[in-house]
Amino acid sequence: MGGAEEEDKHEDEVEQKNKKEEKEKYDDVDENEEEEKSKEKKKKKNKDGKENEEDAKEKKKKNPEDKKDPIKLKQKLERIETKIQALVAKKEEVLKLLHEAEANQGETTQPPVDPS
Question: Which region ranges are annotated with the description Disordered (predicted)?
């Protein structure tokens, strides 16, 4: 009977060692996953261009001569016009949705007409 108890102890020790190894293995995997996630976030930020634009704005020094250069001013004006057109299109879409919502709300809030 003493042999069976020693075998059980040995199995328990082996099982505990295996659990520790698995836990360490998963800890390593978790660290790798966290590193990969952080890399993916950086890539997403770079794809969106938001981070890069901010970095570019910080790095780019404004040249006072640009205010006098007609080519640069025309380029700037074109960029502004493009943004304005996009905003006007969005405004029209929102106004259309607003009018539809108001019309639908007006129909539902009016009491039904009694035909008697």
Answer: 1-77
- Looking at the whole model, is its pTM more than 0.85? no
* pLDDT > 90: percent of the chain: 30
Which residue range is the domain that position 11 belongs to?
Answer: 1-60
pLDDT in tens, 47-87: 555 555 566 656 667 777 778 899 999 999 999 999 999 99
Examine residue 91 and state whether it is found in any structural domain, yes or no: yes
Q: CA of 11: how far to CAs of 5, 6, 14, 18, 93, in Å?
A: 10, 9, 5, 10, 71
Number of folded domains in the chain? 2
Domain co-membership, 51 together with 12: yes
On whether both 52 and 67 belong to a single domain, the answer is: no
Is residue 46 within 8 Å of residue 52, measured between CB atoms? yes
Question: How many helices (H) and strands (E) are present in the chain, helices listed first?
Answer: 3, 0
